[in-house]
Design goal:
This protein is of the alpha/beta class. The protein has eight helices and 17 strands.
């Protein structure tokens, strides 16, 4: 028997979008009644009237065919308006597809909007029972898990307060707590987790980790690439309602950044800027063979050269190198004056080259970015944002002994180990 738990074929959803006629910003009731009568008469005369120029068919989702196996955790990423939430609504049976079909083999719980299924006049306690019932839990199941839900949500002091007085953060904490403790076979989660604070987001991530470890299937829509990369081994990239990339989360995120113009690895000198006291002229990434590249063997060191032009003397200036993951996690930051004993940050007029070398056998395989900042505590002289991307390739396959979470780590240091027999009890 197949272990495919979610299957869609040619799934699509369209909406008819009306456009107001030019020059008609305000419409009176008599205009509505008159236009309605004209519309009915026009439909009788011409059945195609509904497709007139003021109405447009908009496809929020087009020809989506996916197969997700039991226990898989998938991320769904893409720009706003790409169809991510629409896909989850179709899978949740909240709305019907225009084309295609979706087969769901299991109990589904969804958290798509803040406070979905909550009644504003009821208290938090009452809404736990109401929302749990809507999601398919029996009253006894809710009673058995009530204390866990309350403890997870962290809203115990306000449990007997009507939820209309809850903040949006409290809303989503309680809503997620109920949905997560339903222990469904399939959990669909939209961007709502961004509302919670850092501690709560970490709790949610750990909870979803435990759900996936328990064999449950999870689909997560998020703009937070860190959460997606941490939770999901595989992902889909949606663009204009269509899946344009699927596969490993790392590859999908890389493709997403390329499509948004963040995948460039070039520096363009824009000529002399009289408004800048110090100006970056060139940035280059060099491998261990001193070749300019964007793909490195992570076993070897690499170097970044920053050429800058000091037009007027400055004091206390640092050249700062900051390395980040593709998910925007800062790996490290280094100031040149901290490691140059004879440099106090004083620069006379002239062109300088500052080089920073990163050791080999330290970074894990993956895609990284870095940026350069020139300035002092009070002044920013020049800045090049995250436009430099490179790939660190693994020099060897991961050992089968390593944890399944190993690939999610930032560093893969080559450390010296030694194991000795210090005592033989026999």
């Amino acid at each position: 028997m197949s272990n495919i738990i979610i299957e869609t074929e040619g799934l699509g959803k369209s909406y008819m979008v009306g456009h107001q006629s030019e020059g008609k910003q305000y419409v009176a009731l008599r205009d509505v009644l008159t236009n309605k009568a004209k519309e009915i008469w026009s439909k009788i005369k011409n059945p195609q009237y509904y497709t007139h120029q003021n109405v447009e068919e908009f496809w929020a989702l087009k020809n989506v065919s996916i197969e997700i196996k039991e226990g898989e955790v998938y991320g769904i990423i893409g720009p706003n308006g790409s169809g991510k939430t629409t896909l989850l609504k179709l899978l949740s049976r909240i709305t019907e597809p225009t084309t295609g079909r979706a087969v769901i083999r299991g109990k589904v719980a969804s958290l798509l909007e803040v406070g979905t299924g909550f009644h504003p006049e009821l208290t938090g306690r009452e809404n736990i029972f109401l929302n749990g019932s809507i999601l398919g839990m029996s009253r006894q199941e809710i009673k058995d898990k009530f204390d866990e839900i309350v403890d997870f949500s962290g809203v115990e002091p306000f449990l007997d307060t009507p939820v209309k007085r809850f903040s949006s953060g409290m809303y989503v904490r309680l809503a997620f707590a109920v949905a997560a403790h339903l222990e469904p076979e399939i959990l669909l989660v939209d961007e709502v987790l961004a509302v919670g604070d850092i501690d709560f987001q970490n709790k949610c991530i750990l909870k979803m980790d435990s759900l996936s470890d328990g064999g449950r299937t999870v689909l997560i829509v998020s703009h937070n690439m860190n959460s997606i990369q941490r939770l999901c081994k595989k992902s889909f990239l949606l663009e204009k309602g269509e899946i344009v990339k699927s596969g490993s989360t790392q590859n999908v995120i890389e493709d997403y950044y390329k499509r948004t113009g963040m995948g460039e690895n070039t520096f363009v000198y824009k000529g002399d800027d009289d408004n800048k006291t110090v100006q970056i002229k060139n940035v280059e990434l060099l491998d261990h063979n001193h070749n300019q590249t964007s793909t490195l063997d992570r076993a070897y060191p690499f170097r970044v050269n920053i050429e800058f032009w000091v037009k007027r003397p400055v004091k206390n200036m640092s050249v700062i190198f900051t390395l980040k993951t593709i998910s925007n996690i800062m790996v490290c930051q280094s100031f040149n004056i901290d490691y140059e004993p004879n440099n106090d940050g004083t620069y006379e007029r002239g062109i300088y080259v500052s080089s920073v070398q990163f050791p080999g056998a330290l970074l894990n395989a993956g895609r990284y970015s870095f940026y350069i900042w020139l300035g002092s505590r009070r002044v920013q002289y020049d800045y090049e944002p995250d436009k430099y991307f490179f790939i660190a390739e693994s020099d060897q396959a991961p050992s089968s002994q390593r944890s399944k979470h190993y690939e999610k780590l930032i560093l893969e240091p080559s450390l010296n180990w030694q194991t000795d027999l210090v005592n033989d009890p026999q």
